[in-house]
Specification:
The complex is a heterodimer of chains A (421) and B (180). Chain A is 29% helix and 19% strand. With 421 residues, chain A is α/β, with parallel strands linked by helices. Chain A folds into 2 domains: 250 residues, Aconitase, domain 3 (2-Layer Sandwich), CATH 3.30.499; 147 residues, Aconitase, domain 3, CATH 3.30.499. In chain A, strand 9, helix 6 and strand 10 form a beta-alpha-beta unit. Chain A is globular. The relative contact order of chain A is 0.14. Chain B starts with a strand and ends in an 18-residue tail after the last helix. Classes of the chains: A alpha/beta (421), B alpha/beta (180).
Chain lengths: 421, 180
């Protein structure tokens, strides 16, 4: 019996010939990514040894630069840990910092066919690179740090065959919202993506979908390793790897087509991602106070490009705050070089340093009581971005940029007629 | 909790109960005590005063969706004996193993309990969930013995400590309580 991509990677890394749904497997972890949250006293436990410091990556991302004294103290603990064990892949506040999943992408740390873990739910982002990457708990990270291993329960797999091409004004954020709306949660299931439409999606466009895999509760969200993935990884990381593409006779729980040409801009209504989206037109005219583009899902260079194309020569509406946060300082530099940042700040946007920032309500754009926000980030849970009475709509960066110009939720087609992806 | 029989009254929550509701972002970095004082404060203010240690939470589909934050630890710290749901997000389930909170997946359990306050009886010998009030019974999914032992034995830190992998817990500086 054939295996899915997820099953192949879990078999290979657990030393088994095959694995199948329902089994518990213990796997070798290739990459173990610690974030700044891990070093706060309420999470940190001092490790007395590490299985292999070269498998460890440390990225400060949720609260950079230190947003308060507690964050500053956590960063001190993190730096001491890096020094104690001689960890080479350390991304401190400065040139190489960013959101961990984005740094993992910039540096191609998520190697095709391997396992990567991090104590952040959006770690499934690495699935865009054919990597079995997923979020685990802080104690799991300590366990992996000291043993080099972790455990997974093998889930059933849902296969999405991507066909066609996206229409003007539509992005892969809309594709994700379609999946979440039409098919709902995928708890205890893996999602896998492939098919002829993949060639029309950039690595960044795929990363948006893989990252949002956490929002449908998928265990893993893995893309096939086509030439674009293999070339991308090889150009950034010299380490050897072996991709895991699916067997022709792999067994799927469901097999579904995603026809890109049938997608349209969607918006998730406040408080929930699942089964909660409508076409933008249904909520057009809803007044907003804040608009946000950023996070590990939508802080890519593609997202900057989309926002800049919509906002070029225009102004953010009076009374609206548009905040744009790059996923990494590397993306920030590229966005400056490409001229996007000039366009965005001329339009009245605040472009911040790379960090998780407003997405998690930690800093750099926290919402106040009764406010309304439209966001291109990871989730719109009640209270997520600040006060629990704030209402958070979630859409694509094009929809957010268009809404920021109009001051009310607006279809991106009002300001752009071009293909964005 | 002792023995393999757990019996307590239930509180019902719906589908897709997320981690931010159990552990709000503004106390994400605060002490365990502060975190525990805010469970379900956004969606069900006042519930903490009504529940008593030993109670059971009944969830619908996809319980615990969301972030990797230790929401399970807060439920353990307020004394929840068990979370039973139609399905459980796998990251939340991991954290139940990690922090020592009993969690069971039991398809149909959200319909088994028609009202809050009904008494739930769980057998961990044969993984059954019984509504003692109505007498109806369902099978839960079996949790492997090693994971069950961690859920019932305080999670993985005591094990790692015993094996010499991590240092004993240090007393936390009082200042950390001010963090967020």
């Amino acid at each position: 019996m054939g295996m899915t991509m997820t099953e192949k990677i879990l078999a290979r890394t657990s030393g088994a010939k095959t694995v199948s749904p329902g089994e518990i497997v213990v796997v070798d972890v290739d990459t173990c990514v610690f974030i700044d949250n891990s070093f706060f006293p309420v999470y940190w436990r001092e490790m007395l040894k590490l299985a292999n410091p070269d498998k460890i990556v440390v990225v400060f991302d949720h609260r950079v630069p230190a947003s308060d004294r507690a964050a500053a103290a956590a960063h001190v603990v993190g730096r001491a840990f890096v020094k104690q064990f001689g960890i080479k892949r350390f991304h401190d506040v400065g040139r190489d910092v960013g959101i961990s999943h984005v740094v993992v992408s910039d540096r191609a740390y998520a190697l095709p066919g391997t396992v990567l873990v991090c104590a952040d739910s959006h770690t499934c982002s690495g699935g865009a690179f054919n990597c079995a990457a997923r979020g685990v708990g802080a104690p799991d990270m300590i366990y992996t740090g000291v043993t080099g291993k972790t455990w997974f329960r093998v889930g059933e797999t849902v296969r999405y065959d991507i066909t066609g091409k996206l229409n003007a004004g539509v992005t892969t954020k809309d594709v994700f919202l379609h999946i979440a709306n039409a098919f709902g949660e995928h708890a205890n299931q893996n999602v896998e993506f492939g098919g002829p439409g993949l060639q029309h999606l950039s690595i960044n466009a795929r990363r948006t979908i893989a990252t949002m895999g956490a929002e449908i509760s998928a265990d893993f969200a893995i893309f096939e390793a086509d030439d674009a993935v293999i070339d991308y990884v090889k150009s950034r990381n010299p380490a050897p790897f072996e991709p895991a593409n699916p067997d022709a006779d792999a067994v799927y729980k469901y097999r579904r087509e995603l026809a890109l040409n049938e997608m349209e801009p969607l918006v998730a209504l406040p408080d929930a991602v699942l089964n909660n989206s409508v076409p933008v037109g249904k909520v057009a005219g809803e007044k907003i106070d804040q608009a946000f583009i950023g996070s590990c899902a939508n802080g890519t260079l593609d997202d900057f490009s989309i926002a800049a194309r919509v906002l070029n020569g225009r102004r953010v509406a009076e009374g609206v705050r548009l905040l744009i946060t790059p996923g990494s300082q590397e993306i920030y530099r590229e966005a400056v070089r490409a001229g996007y940042v000039q366009i965005l700040v001329d339009a009245g946007a605040i472009v911040t340093n790379a960090t998780c920032g407003a997405c998690g309500g930690g800093h750099l754009g926290v919402l106040g009581p009764g406010e309304t926000c439209i966001t291109a980030s990871t989730r719109n849970f009640k209270g997520r971005m600040g006060d629990p009475t704030a209402r958070i709509y979630m859409g694509s960066p094009a929809t957010v940029a268009a809404s920021a110009i109009a001051g009310v939720i607006t279809h991106p087609g009002e300001f752009t007629k071009e293909a964005l992806v | 909790m002792s023995g393999n029989l757990v019996s307590a009254r239930v509180w019902k929550f719906g589908d897709n109960i997320n981690t931010d509701l159990m552990l709000p972002g503004d106390v994400h970095m605060a002490t365990e005590e502060v975190q525990a004082s805010r469970v379900f404060s956004a969606n069900r203010p006042g519930w903490l005063a009504e529940m008593t240690p030993g109670d059971i939470i009944i969830g619908g589909k996809n319980y615990g969706t969301g972030s990797s934050r230790p929401a399970s630890r807060s439920l353990r710290n307020i004394g929840i004996a068990c979370v039973i749901a139609d399905s459980v997000n796998s990251l939340f389930f991991r954290n139940c193993v990690n922090f020592g909170l009993l969690a069971l997946e039991c398809p149909g359990v959200s319909d088994l309990f028609t009202e809050e306050g009904q008494i739930c009886e769980i057998s961990l010998d044969n993984f059954t969930v019984r509504n003692k009030t109505t007498g109806k019974i369902l099978n839960a999914q079996k949790v492997p013995a090693n994971l069950l032992a961690l859920m019932r034995g305080g999670g993985i830190y005591p094990v790692l400590e015993k094996e010499g992998f991590i240092a004993p817990m240090k007393a936390r500086p009082a200042e950390a309580a001010a963090g967020h």
